[in-house]
Fold Fatty acid desaturase 1-like.
Amino acid sequence: MCHLKGLSAHWWSLYHSQHHAKPNCFEKDPDVSIHPGFFSLGEPLSLELGLQKKKYMPYNYQHKYFFFTLPLLVVPIYQVYSLYFILQRKLWREMAWMFAYFIRFFIAFNPILGFKGVLGYLILLKVLESILFTWLSQMSHLPMHIDHDKNMDWFSTQLQATCNVNRSFFNDWVTGHLNCQIEHHLFPTMPRHNFWKVTPLVKSMCAKHGIEYQSKSLLIGLADIVHSLKVAGEIWFKAYHCEQKIPNSKICLQQGKAGEET
C-alpha cells in the first residue's frame, strides 16, 4: 500500500480494523470521528448533542455543505493522518516506500507535464479518488444507525450499521464488489468477487434471528447519505433550540414540532 497508494499500510490496517470491529460506534469507529466537529451524525447522537446545547457547525445545513467538504477532502486528510502515524511511530521503512510512490509518480509524468503540471495532476487524482471513495463507502454506513457502543452481539452490530447496494454488473464494477458491504463486514478476508456466494446464507441467518438485511439501489443509496444528514441536522436543531436542557427527547421534539406548526 505504501508504494502503490502512498499511504501507510500499518495506519490503514489499524484504522480499518477499528472500523470493522465497531462500525458506526461513536468514539470507537474512526469513520464517525467527524462527529461532532464537522457533522452531526445519527439520530441518537444528534439529539444528545442538541440537548447538551453544543454547536460546532451549523448542522441544520450539513446536508448542503457536505458536497464541498467531506467528499473532496477525505483522501487528502488520510494522507496527512498517514504521514503523522508514520512519524509518530518512526516507521522509516514505510516512509521510504511512501516517498517511492511519489518519486515514481513524478518520474513518470514530469517529462510530459512538467513539475507544476504533475503536482496539479496528483492533486486532481486525489480529489477525484476522494469523491468516489467517500460516496461509494458512506452510502453503506452513514444512513445506518450511529450511536454509542451498546455492547450488542457482533453479528447484530454489523447488520445495524451496514447495508448493501443491489447487485448488477455496473454496481459490482464501480464499487469493486463492495456493494456487498454486509458480507464484506462479516467475512473481511474473503475475496470480494465471492461475496454474492454467501449472501443467501447471511439472509437466512438474518431471517432466523429477526435481524433486518437491508439492500437498496445505487441511486437511493447515494440519496440516503444526504437525507440522513438532513434528518440528523433537523433533530439537532430542534433539540438545540429547546428552552430547557432536559434529557427527555420526546418532550424536546414535541416542543420543536409545536413551534413549527405555530
